[in-house]
Amino acid sequence: MKDIYEDCPVYRREYLTLIQTDMEDAVDLLKCYSDENAVPIFNSDNCHGDNFHYTTIERMRQAIDFWSFSYTNKYFIRWTVRLNSSNERIGTVEMFHRLAEDEFNHYGVLRIDLQSSYETASVIGEILEIANSYLYEAFQVEAILTKAIPGAKERITALMDKGYQTLNKKLMVYDDYYVRYNGQN
User: Fold this and answer.
1) Is the pLDDT of residue 106 over 70?
2) pTM of model > 0.85
3) Which candidate in 11, 38, 50, 178 could, as Cys together with 164 as Cys, close a disulfide (CB 3.0–4.6 Å)?
4) In 12-140, which ranges are continuous DSSP H helix?
5) Which of the pair, 25 or 55, is modelled with greater confidence?
6) Could you tell me the pLDDT band of residue 175, with boundaries at 50, 70 and 90?
7) What is the Cα–Cα distance from 68 to 136, expressed in whole angstroms?
8) Beta pairing, strands 108-114 & 89-97
9) Tell me, what's the pLDDT at 2?
10) How far apart are the C-alpha atoms of 39 and 176, rounded to whole Å?
11) Whole-number Cα distances in Å, 20 to 4, 9, 35, 68, 77
12) Cα–Cα dist 81/119, whole Å
């Protein structure tokens, strides 16, 4: 199996494509990360105080630079979510293989950050289809965890539709996680 950190795949569905984030994405991604309606839905758990609310292109570029550094050092991968119809970049997806001394060791953690106008069950559903089809094997995990706060109704609808269920316990000290095991419908 190819090392995902040596050759980052591009994933394409009908409506959108996930492609590794780079500096060319900064201007469009700033629309997502400066969107005050979107920020509360982002998963910033365990991100050392970064809430991902960026209001300058300089700060957006710093984040992308850190994401590139993290890929090079095999911490996580950030893909840009691009609309196939317009090539507009509407957000990002992050995934990593979690290593910890707890019951969620070797689980994948999926973060989905979207502009609020694209926080819809259909967009999130396509992202989850990609995760369900490819990311278990790519990251060598048997389960994927992702967060959805109670107010994120569209996200919760998409999660339930794609086979995720509430975790019903904390991940470390954090609430509102959903889980899907590999092979689950």
Assistant:
1) yes
2) yes
3) 178
4) 26-33, 57-72, 121-130, 136-139
5) 25
6) confident
7) 22
8) antiparallel
9) 79
10) 16
11) 11, 8, 21, 9, 7
12) 12
Per-residue pLDDT band for 146 (boundaries 50, 70, 90) equals very high
d(CA 24, CA 30): 11
Q: Could you tell me if 104 and 98 are in contact, meaning their C-beta atoms sit under 8 angstroms apart?
A: yes
Q: Around 68, how many Cα atoms within 13 Å sit in the side-chain half-sphere?
A: 12
AA identity, residue 149: I
- What residue segments make up the domains of the chain, in order of their start? 11-181
**Contacts (Cβ under 8 Å, ≥6 apart) of 124:** 112, 114, 154, 155, 158, 159
Hey, what are 89's tokens? 């970049």
For the chain, the maximum distance between any two Cα atoms, rounded to a whole number of angstroms, is 44
Q: How many residues does the chain have?
A: 185
**Residue 124 near residue 21 (C-beta atoms within 8 A):** no
- For residue 16, is pLDDT > 80? yes
Per-residue buried b or exposed e for 155-179, using 16+ beta carbons within 10 Å of the residue's own CB = bbbbbeebbbeebeeebeeeebbbb
165: which residues sit within 8 A by CB, 6+ positions away?
178, 179, 180
Angstrom distances, CA of residue 97 to CA of 66, 107, 119, 164 = 18, 6, 25, 18
